[in-house]
Each structure stands twice: as structure tokens, then as C-alpha cells.
Design goal:
The structure is a homodimer. With about 190 residues, chain A is mostly helical. Chain A has helices at about 5-20, 25-35, 45-50, 55-65, 90-115, 125-150, 155-165, 165-180; strands at about 40, 70-75, 80-85. At the A-B interface, helix 1, helix 5, helix 6, helix 7 and helix 8 of A face helix 1, helix 5, helix 6, helix 7 and helix 8 of B. The structure holds a DNA duplex (30 and 30 nucleotides).
DNA sequence: TACAAATTTCAGTAATTACTGAAATAACCG
DNA sequence: CGGTTATTTCAGTAATTACTGAAATTTGTA
């Protein structure tokens, strides 16, 4: 591996981290390298920097591409493919979340829906189905929330995140104002 | 494996999913089984249901325990350990997020902080450091947001999630009210 | 279309991770 | 204590996943 100590620390860390997410070391390292690079890199440069074989790098890039995490660039007078990550880190985050949703959440929801239409036979299945229902609803709620957040442009999303739970106070304020004249909401007496 | 088709579908799915998160098949399946069970199960029951060896189950339970995802129970007149998951699914979610934060986010932040105090030598390191800074700040922001959300009791959290981006409109409303008389905020003219 | 450069594929091998059974240890009970 | 049951550890093996080099394919160029 042929990198400055600073680069090396970062790259190795993301190699490690990759393993903890179903992504392998190579892929993690390639992405880390591209993330830190000021210019698009070609496959041979990646080989040199990380010490992987050409074919391994090729597969890693393919994997990253299937996650839609890298961008292919072509430089003038150079036939080789060059790769970058999106400039905007929020685009990266959005892609990551979107992909994990597609690959993990959607299949899970789909499996749950399938099982939930079956008729439970006996107490055990009834209990199990109730638990699956609970899980299904929770995941769906989080997914809906995410879909909704996804629509916000970045600056607004950031504002919202920075506000955090403070925003909840506004919500309660609004609710109280509405409630003052004797609104229709039921059981909202003490939400604290 | 000795399970109803319904249980089997769910258990196998979470075995699969486990692999995609650094968690292995055994661990995923054990957790799925416990999640669906109406009563605490002992290790031998888990062996029977899933067809793993006793030692494998023991290791799986140890792993789950290290994630704080299972609870040890003792039944009257039975020396054996019995295991459950928390009744409240939100407790499970909170634990999962908390643990991943501890195991993945914190080490990453710590690595980034270490690298960011070093003096960059040359353009490349300067660029790289800027990118790492950007990443650090983003992660920290998300972490702070999470810390904040964590404090909310579940019902409020659910309300907030269900509101989704609608809550942002309240925020803007509030801001506009403040701005009407000619507030001090700068450059907030058109946030849409 | 023929050649060269770039990239991908894939079979074989290396490395890692998962799993087992046997033995050791711990917990409980008379 | 001594015996019994429950649990964990761990060395060895099985299974899976990662990685390589050589060959095949694709892409671009004259």
C-alpha cells in the first residue's frame, strides 16, 4: 500500500468498517480512497495505492457501481475509465440510505406482508403473527418517514436535523393553541 | 429445523439478513426465533428448533447478549437459563441504534478527530483533510440529532416521526412570525 | 477490419469465518 | 463436599467469502 499515513489511516478504517456492514474490505478501501481523492482515479491507480490485484479492483468497482456510489468519468485523451464519488456528501448519504432500503427493508416488508395474509393455526402462530404485524407497522412507519425526509432539499433537512426535538415543542404549541377554545382532539390533556 | 412454515419463513429471512449486517446467520435466526416466541426459550429448545449445535447456540446467545439484545429469565423449578427479547419493540430499536453507534460511529468519529489534528503536508492532504472534516461534521450532526431523539419518550417520538416533514412548516411559520416585524435573521428571505 | 489498450470474467486458491464435538468449567442440590 | 445438570470454551474442521492470474471480451483507434 502506497499512501500517506493520513490516507492510510482513513482507508484502513473504512476497510474494517466495510466488513461490519455486508461490504468487503476491498470495496470499503476503494471507496475511502476515492472519497479522499481530489481527482478521478483510474483502476490502475487504485491498484497501486491499495495493493490489490487489477481484477479485485474491477470487481470492487462493479460492486460500488451496483450501489450507485461511484461516478464514471472520462478524461480527454485517455481511454481509461476514471472514478469519483459525488462531490456532495449528502448525495452519498441519500444514496446509501436509499440502497439499503431497497436491498434490506423492502424485501423484509414484502416477506412480512406475505406471512401476514396467512391464517394462523393455533396460539403460537397467532402470537407470532401479532409480533410480525408490530414489526411490519414499525418498519413501514420509519420508511414513510424516510420517504418524506427524502423529499426535503438538503438545506431544509439540515435545519430540521439541527432543530432536533425542539421542533416538537412547536408542534405542541400549535396543538395547544388549537386546543384552547376546546378543540375536538381527545385524550391530549397531558402529552408531557 | 423444526418449525411451522410461518416461523420458518421469518427465521430464515432474518438469518439471511443477518449476513448482510456483520451479524451471522445463527445469530440472526436465534434472534428471530426469540422474537416470535410467546415465552422464554432455553438453549436446548433453540437447538431443536433451528438444528444448530449446542455450542453454536451458546456462542450466538453470547453474541446477542453482548449487543444487549436479549434478556435472561429464570423459571421456577428450572435451573436452565431462558431467553427472551424485550416486549417493547421500540426498546429493541433503541438498543440496536445505540449499539451500532457505539461500535461503528464512535470509533469512526474518534479516528477522524485524530487525523484532523495532524498538519496536512501538501495539496493532497489538505484536500483529504477537508473531506474528512466534512464527514466528521456530518456524522456529528446526525449523532447529536440521534442523542436528542433518544431522549424523547416513545409516544412523542412516534408522533414526531408520523408528522415527518410537516413539522418543518411549523418551524417556518414560527420563523415568519418572528420575521414579520423585521427580525435580525439574515438571508432568510426565501427558504422555499 | 486489424490491432492495441482497457476491462471483465472465471476457475482455482488463499484467507476468513462459521460450526461442531469433546472436554473443561460453573451452578445447583442433597 | 460429591454428584448431577447446565453452560462455556476451544481446537479442529467445514463452509463461505475474498482474491488472484490467466484468458476472454470489450472498447477505441488507425
Amino acid at each position: 500500500m502506497n499512501l500517506s499515513p493520513m490516507h492510510q489511516t482513513f482507508v484502513l478504517h473504512f476497510g474494517e468498517m466495510g466488513s461490519r456492514w455486508g461490504i468487503n474490505r476491498t470495496v470499503g478501501q476503494i471507496y475511502a480512497l476515492l472519497y479522499l481523492s481530489a481527482r478521478p482515479l483510474n483502476a490502475d491507480e487504485i491498484c497501486d495505492s491499495l495493493g490489490f490485484s487489477r481484477s479485485n479492483v474491477s470487481m470492487g468497482l462493479k460492486e460500488l457501481d451496483s450501489w450507485n456510489l461511484i461516478r464514471l468519468k472520462h478524461l480527454p485523451n485517455d481511454r481509461r475509465d476514471h472514478f469519483t464519488v459525488p462531490d456532495d456528501i449528502w448525495e452519498i448519504v441519500r444514496t446509501l440510505v436509499e440502497q439499503r432500503r431497497k436491498r434490506e427493508i423492502e424485501p423484509t416488508l414484502s416477506m412480512l406482508r406475505d406471512v401476514l395474509v396467512e391464517k394462523p393455526s393455533g396460539k403460537d402462530e397467532q402470537f407470532a403473527q401479532a409480533k410480525m404485524h408490530e414489526m411490519h407497522d414499525l418498519i413501514e412507519m420509519l420508511t414513510n418517514w424516510h420517504t418524506d425526509m427524502e423529499k426535503l432539499e438538503t438545506q431544509r433537512l439540515v435545519n430540521l436535523l439541527k432543530l432536533g426535538s425542539k421542533v416538537y415543542k412547536l408542534y405542541e404549541m400549535k396543538n395547544n393553541i388549537r386546543l384552547l377554545p376546546g378543540g375536538k382532539d381527545k385524550k391530549k390533556k397531558d402529552t408531557r
